[in-house]
């Protein structure tokens, strides 16, 4: 069965996946497409949505839109930048009118199918500098907002032409702060484009089982089983389609796993009754040798990725992969690039689309039954497959594992003059909160305006409630250049002397990190926080504090939905006390801290 579907044209930023996700929640299939895509490639869609963008129409920024798309005979809805593109294309004017940002009141001007079910006034989310200041002949205003800044300025917030079947909204219906954004998207895809709500998980499951049966024929599938949600759901799905006798599983321990992870994975596959053709390879030595004394994050990632491919290649040959199709638990965002979209900067390199695998894909030897799905949909599919929820709702764990949570350094150094100046500047910002700032002489990865940053963290010491701590951190990010993270010291003692020390990817350091991480995970479970918190990396940074060399341990609980953005979560005082006792008792820890950083400006992982 073919589903009615919508193309979401991705103009950059973080919006396109959000839009596609929201449309899919309405049971209509949405796919991400690029502005330069050809009309032929878009002809199967029943409607098109143009996303927002960091570009400015008023400055003539060219987002590379293939203008022929505008002459297609399907409805098109533009959001924010897309709204301006539509207005501009059909004879309207766009000007730099100043920033309209945040929650805003939308006033409906007329009754229109796009706004069906909305009240006369609605809360919407705005984020733009350019505005539509006049409309082309065929367009009418459907709604407006009033910008209070410097007098009451009118803004065209929703426009449309039923003759052309072109519509635009200046706000972001894909963002939760637009309270009835789903209604507007639903009106567009169902009322205006006429899409049927056929994209349901039950149907998807049925179709995938048929598709797997067809592609595998009387052959078999070889699947890499990491123990994560995606490969587990894929494994159960394959078994449902072709039976467990023809499913071969390989689990590689890269030595960068959590405490007892491989043993747990083996038990899990036993529980799922998928142990018949389960193969295990312990590659700890291979990985640690390959990583050696490397400390640069992207190089570490590349080494981990390449070593993985080498070991996988060798083991798969040994197990006779040529006789099977290669199954992968790749999900939709991975196929678009690194979890973000094609137009966004490669903030970190993920490694599930490496050349060897690309080659196998070309030969038609790869089968990826989850490649159309977002993570929430994979979990929904897992529930349909009756996989126990404790397996489906495990926190995500990155492919390079603890490799991105154990920071390495091959130099031992104190703060230089630049860092001392940065520290003074930070201190000025945080002293009104009763906090003391210590800039750490190490760097971690972050993201600002969709670009990768590699900057210094700052350690805040002092007593303040979580709200004040995050407020202080927010001000530091805004006001001090070169800081992309703030962590809060569990100890009240202000460090006097801090220096980075040498530290490599060794088994000893990894074992200590595994212990600390297990203490944190057990703590979250004990306080019923595991299911509320989206992910909680524990990170080690090699740092000497007041003459005590060791690991500065960072606990990073976050709330998130799709990992594109995240906010720092607080921990109850009792838990902090317990963590302090247990983690400090491990020995070798120079300080214990809580990460206060949202994403942006930090990333979830430190590297
Ligand atoms: P960041 O750190 O970029 O992470 O905010 C976003 C989400 O992606 C996970 N992550 C990875 N997952 N391979 C993966 O499979 C990777 O190389 C990788 N890097 C980050 C991270 O744990 C978070 O959930």
Total count of domains? 3
Mean pLDDT: 92
Number of DSSP-assigned strands? 25
Counting DSSP H or I runs of 4 or more residues, the number of helices is 17
CATH topology label of the largest domain: Rossmann fold
Q: Could you name the ranges where pLDDT drops below 50 across 5 or more consecutive residues?
A: 343-349
Q: So, the CATH homologous superfamily of the largest domain?
A: HUPs
CATH architecture of the largest domain: 3-Layer(aba) Sandwich
Sheet-strand content, in percent, reads: 15-25%
Would you write up a description of this structure?
- The chain is of the alpha/beta class.
- It has 3 domains: 5-192, 3-Layer(aba) Sandwich (Rossmann fold); 201-401, HUPs (Rossmann fold); 413-595, 2-Layer Sandwich (GMP Synthetase, Chain A, domain 3), CATH 3.30.300.10.
- Helix content is 32%, strand content 24%.
- The protein is built from 17 helices and 25 strands.
- The strands form 4 sheets. It has a 9-stranded mixed β-sheet, with helices on both faces.
- The two termini are 43 Å apart.
- The model is unreliable at 343-349 (pLDDT under 50).
- The structure holds xanthosine-5'-monophosphate (XMP).
- The site of xanthosine-5'-monophosphate (XMP) has 14 residues, from loops.
Blueprint of the fold:
Layout: E1 5-9, H1 15-25, E2 29-33, H2 39-42, E3 47-50, E4 76-79, H3 81-89, E5 93-108, E6 121-134, E7 140-147, E8 153-161, E9 166-169, H4 181-192, H5 201-216, E10 221-224, H6 229-242, E11 247-253, H7 261-271, E12 278-282, H8 284-291, H9 297-318, E13 325-327, H10 332-336, H11 355-362, E14 366-367, H12 375-384, H13 389-392, E15 413-414, H14 417-430, E16 436-439, E17 444-448, E18 451-461, H15 466-479, E19 483-489, E20 498-500, H16 507-526, E21 538-545, E22 551-555, E23 558-559, E24 567-568, H17 573-584, E25 589-595
Parallel strand pairs: 1-2, 1-3, 3-4, 4-9, 10-11, 10-13, 11-12, 13-14, 18-19, 22-25
Antiparallel strand pairs: 5-6, 5-7, 7-8, 8-9, 15-20, 16-18, 17-18, 19-25, 20-21, 21-22, 23-24
The chain binds xanthosine-5'-monophosphate.
């Amino acid at each position: 069965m073919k589903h009615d579907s919508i193309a979401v044209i991705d103009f950059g930023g973080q919006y396109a996946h959000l839009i596609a996700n929201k449309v899919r929640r309405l049971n209509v299939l949405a796919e991400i497409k690029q502005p330069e895509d050809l009309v032929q490639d878009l002809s199967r869609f029943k409607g098109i949505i143009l996303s927002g963008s960091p570009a400015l129409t008023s400055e003539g920024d060219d987002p590379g839109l293939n203008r022929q798309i505008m002459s297609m005979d399907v409805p098109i809805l533009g959001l924010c930048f897309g709204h301006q593109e539509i207005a501009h294309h059909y004879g309207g004017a766009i000007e730099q009118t100043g920033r309209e940002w945040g929650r805003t009141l939308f006033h409906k001007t007329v009754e229109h199918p796009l706004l069906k079910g909305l009240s006369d006034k609605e809360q919407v989310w705005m984020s733009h500098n350019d505005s539509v200041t006049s409309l082309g002949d065929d367009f009418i205003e459907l709604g407006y907002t009033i910008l209070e800044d410097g007098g009451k300025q009118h803004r065209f917030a929703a426009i449309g032409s039923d003759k052309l079947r072109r519509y635009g909204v200046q706000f972001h219906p894909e963002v939760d702060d637009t309270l009835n954004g789903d209604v507007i998207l639903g009106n567009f895809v169902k009322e205006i484009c006429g899409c049927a709500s056929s994209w349901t998980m039950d149907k998807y499951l049925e179709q995938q089982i048929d598709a797997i049966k067809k592609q595998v024929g009387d052959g078999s599938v070889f699947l890499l089983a990491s123990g994560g949600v995606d490969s587990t759901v894929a494994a159960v799905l394959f078994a449902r389609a072709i039976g467990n006798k023809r499913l071969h599983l390989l689990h590689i321990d890269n030595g960068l796993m959590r405490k007892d992870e491989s043993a747990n994975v083996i038990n899990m596959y036993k529980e799922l009754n998928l142990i018949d053709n389960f193969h295990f390879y312990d590659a700890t030595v291979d990985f640690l040798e390959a990583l050696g004394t490397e400390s640069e994050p992207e190089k570490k990632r590349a080494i981990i990725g390449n070593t993985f491919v080498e070991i996988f290649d060798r083991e798969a040959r040994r197990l006779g992969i040529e006789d099977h199709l290669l199954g992968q638990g790749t999900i939709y965002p991975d196929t678009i690039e690194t979890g973000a979209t094609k137009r966004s900067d490669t903030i970190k390199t993920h490694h599930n689309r490496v050349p060897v695998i690309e080659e196998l894909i070309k030969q038609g030897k790869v089968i990826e039954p989850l490649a159309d799905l977002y993570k929430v949909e994979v979990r929904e599919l897992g529930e349909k497959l009756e996989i126990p929820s404790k397996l489906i709702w495990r926190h995500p764990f990155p492919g390079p594992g603890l490799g991105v949570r154990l920071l390495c350094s091959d130099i031992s150094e104190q703060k230089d003059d630049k860092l001392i100046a940065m520290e003074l500047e930070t201190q000025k910002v945080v002293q009104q909160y009763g906090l003391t700032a210590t800039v750490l002489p190490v760097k971690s990865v972050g993201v600002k305006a969709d670009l990768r940053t590699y900057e210094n963290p700052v350690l805040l010491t002092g007593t303040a409630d979580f709200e004040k701590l995050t407020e202080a951190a927010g001000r530091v990010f805004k006001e001090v250049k070169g800081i992309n993270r703030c962590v809060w010291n569990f100890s009240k003692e202000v460090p006097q002397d801090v220096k980075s020390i040498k530290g490599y990817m060794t088994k000893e350091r990894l074992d200590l990190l595994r212990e600390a991480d297990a203490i944190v995970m057990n703590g979250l479970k004990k306080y019923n926080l595991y299911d509320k918190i989206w992910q909680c990396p524990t990170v080690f940074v090699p740092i000497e504090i007041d003459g005590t060399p060791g690991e500065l341990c960072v606990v990073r609980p976050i709330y998130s939905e799709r990992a594109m953005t995240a906010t720092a979560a607080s921990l109850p005082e009792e838990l902090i006390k317990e963590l302090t006792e247990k983690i400090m008792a491990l020995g070798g820890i120079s300080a214990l801290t809580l990460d206060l950083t949202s994403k942006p400006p930090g990333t979830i992982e430190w590297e």
